[in-house]
Design brief:
174 residues, Rossmann fold, 7-stranded mixed sheet, 43% helix, globular
């Protein structure tokens, strides 16, 4: 049975760095780490962000870029002992912008995580906490916030451990 670790926090709170550090600790015996990157380089600024993220990871880790259908790459993930999915909210955004319904997004992500939990690996899932700010003024942004909040609750329930990041400091809440 696998282990699911959920890392939640605001923008620039240190979520990805914490996930990378945890994966390094878990992979000290040359275990295979797969980093699933959900972001797409849609503009120059995003390309720079992605390159910075890549430089923080050990070169021995495998990076798989998948912006919409992580289930498609599960056979490849099964070969790993540690998987990082970074970032769940970007995945949600990609699916929402592709026209997926709220119900389908929830089902897809829950099925993916339940499936990964059945495998003999540790999965670290990074996600943004988006519900602590103001109510967005447009429907798409409100839908995104609502879906992300619902999915974060599902992941927290399924997770063996949950951390919230605040100013680079991890706080274990489950």
């Amino acid at each position: 049975m696998g282990k699911l670790v959920f890392i939640l926090g605001g923008a620039r709170s240190g979520k990805s760095t914490f996930a990378i550090e945890q994966a390094k600790k878990l992979s000290v015996h040359n275990s295979r780490v797969v980093y699933v990157a959900t972001a797409r380089a849609i503009d120059k600024e995003m390309k720079i962000r992605i390159e910075k993220h890549k430089k923080r990871r050990p070169v021995s880790w495998k990076t798989v870029e998948e912006s919409k259908d992580i289930s498609r790459i599960v056979p490849e993930l099964a070969k790993a002992s540690v998987v990082i999915i970074d970032c769940l909210t970007i995945l949600i955004s990609n699916l929402l912008l592709a026209g997926e319904s709220e119900k389908r997004i929830l089902r897809k992500i829950e099925e993916l995580l339940r499936g990964l939990k059945k495998r003999n690996l540790t999965t670290l899932v990074v996600s943004n906490e988006v519900g602590m700010g103001i109510v967005p003024e447009n429907k798409l942004a409100r839908s995104f916030r609502d879906i992300a909040g619902q999915i974060n609750q599902v992941v927290a329930r399924l997770a063996n451990e949950v951390y919230i990041m605040e100013a680079g400091l991890p706080m274990r809440i489950k």
